[in-house]
Structure of LacI family DNA-binding transcriptional regulator:
Amino acid sequence: MTLKELSDLLGLSPTTVSRALNGYPEVSEATRIKVAAAADAHGYAPNTRARALATGRAMAIGHVIPISAKHEMVNPIFADFTAGAGEVYSRNGYDMLMSVVSDQNEKQAYRSFATKRNVDGLIIHAPSLNDERIPFLNDLGLPYVVHGRSSRATAPYAWVDVNNTRAFRRATELLLDLGHTRIALLNGLEHMDFAARRRAGYEAALTARGITPDPALMFSAEMTEAQGHDLTRPLLATSDRPTAILVSSMIMAIGVRRGIEELGLTMGRDVSLITYDDDLSYFRNGSDIPVYTATRSSVRQAGQHAAQLLIDIINGNDSPSELLLEAELTLGTSTGPNRKS
Amino acid sequence: MTLKELSDLLGLSPTTVSRALNGYPEVSEATRIKVAAAADAHGYAPNTRARALATGRAMAIGHVIPISAKHEMVNPIFADFTAGAGEVYSRNGYDMLMSVVSDQNEKQAYRSFATKRNVDGLIIHAPSLNDERIPFLNDLGLPYVVHGRSSRATAPYAWVDVNNTRAFRRATELLLDLGHTRIALLNGLEHMDFAARRRAGYEAALTARGITPDPALMFSAEMTEAQGHDLTRPLLATSDRPTAILVSSMIMAIGVRRGIEELGLTMGRDVSLITYDDDLSYFRNGSDIPVYTATRSSVRQAGQHAAQLLIDIINGNDSPSELLLEAELTLGTSTGPNRKS
DNA sequence: ATCGAAATCCAAAGCGCTTTGAGTGTCTCA
DNA sequence: TGAGACACTCAAAGCGCTTTGGATTTCGAT
């Protein structure tokens, strides 16, 4: 069913039908209702491609999912972020276009979006400290929003981020308050901005209490279950082992816990643990009582915010284009007072 | 840069330029090279929307991601499946269109894809035993591939699935061989086809050894960490507790393990555990030695196969449209002989 | 020299929609 | 009664591409 067929059916011109459906004022309410009814009855919806061509707007947002060639990894938070963003897109009539590329080809994917003109905007993920995508995209001229920040970027850009520094500072302070002084940090890869900020928060809290951060207690790795486990085992086997561990992701924390228990130790008693929790839908932190003490911020909500911000930018509503979300610190059973001192 | 601009630049007609770029034989090799070079130099790529309108092909595949309204859950395997499918799409010049909708609106999302004509095909996930989407999509006339099967569907459809029955039958047999007779099953929701098949495999193995499946040992729930834990606790608190547990997902298994250890029991010694492992990239089963004994099948590869199959169907290459993948059974440290008998 | 096929290239139509600019009635007020 | 204002509606152009059906040139063969 095309517009022309529908208009023939109604004995109207395509113009009028189009205007009726798109809510233009030049058409009477009576015909509008008639047209809408007929469209509904015959299951008519405008052909996206033709409409996009005519209006110059693709009504689609692009997401580039880079796959690390080394580890064949998909960022686990991606599904929930996507879900959040997707809801907002649907609500606003936008489609979500996903491009899965190996991380070397990422820029090419952005360029391709721009030249093929099949999206009106982009969301980019996981920025590094000085992310080269930002100047690149500024040149490209396609609206975009960054999920996260890039501390050393000089050009302006729109972003939605969590206050990672504050979150890790508070988590560290909690552990200090519980009497822990040897606190390990199992962080994500620190060329990533979020990880650098988390480390800064951790170090700031220690320094403020007169403790010099010990490089032997700080680790930076991919945030997998296996890494969590593999880093924890040797760490806890030393004589002056830490009494508390700060972990950058739930998934990694699962591995840490596995390591703790393999050594016959008990989490929350022998070793305290605080983790960052992205509130992933399939991995909620316990059912009633949280298992892990955690700083939590919903990545799904971040997705909603980022999507809304991008749509605002595309529509030219220049509301503030930066949004800093706060994580909340929730007590679980994984922390307790230091018993070793 | 449009085709017209490029052709003006080259002193050729748009026709010739278009043909040169699309590899039609009516253009000399010399001009083809010249055109390609110019296109490259000026960063020209055909406008997707215009091309789609002209060719009648959207060069895009739709995925509908239903969000369970009740639990606000995103299927965790979705990210990896998507990654696999996305690779194949990219390689073949297809875009991936994602539509996130609450599960009540799912059909509407398919219909919208069909009427708006912005995709050439669909992939659908998580079919139930008698999935109503199959007749619905057959009517709709948009090519599609099902990830999974729908046992009670009468109409034919293309699918890619894992041999769930066989996988669970083999896993159960392994436990039986180890002397376990009271084997619990923590399954996914059994209106889902995959879960029903897994249960069938489990029951078949038991029955073949003369053991009547005990309803008190069979559970069907959402496959979250919390559910795994919450089901395990009371299960292992009974006097005639099972000595082995078969679990339908790694994530759930993590929760089961937590339950086991909270009770002071040791996995692999006091309780054996076998889990189904989708080989999720962020949740590999241990680094060197697998932690869990598991039946594994890569959901990412399933994504690749499904995407390829769909593209084949769209292109009219009618290769066989059904693909059954086998899961492999890998020994980890979570299983051991029954010590209780 | 001439013809026909092969090799190139092009003009123009068309994909299905939006939107501009104009046209036709109908109403209101002088 | 006539003129202007208003409410509707429409024809046609245009978005950027592909593709049909010709037109032109080249060249070996007659």
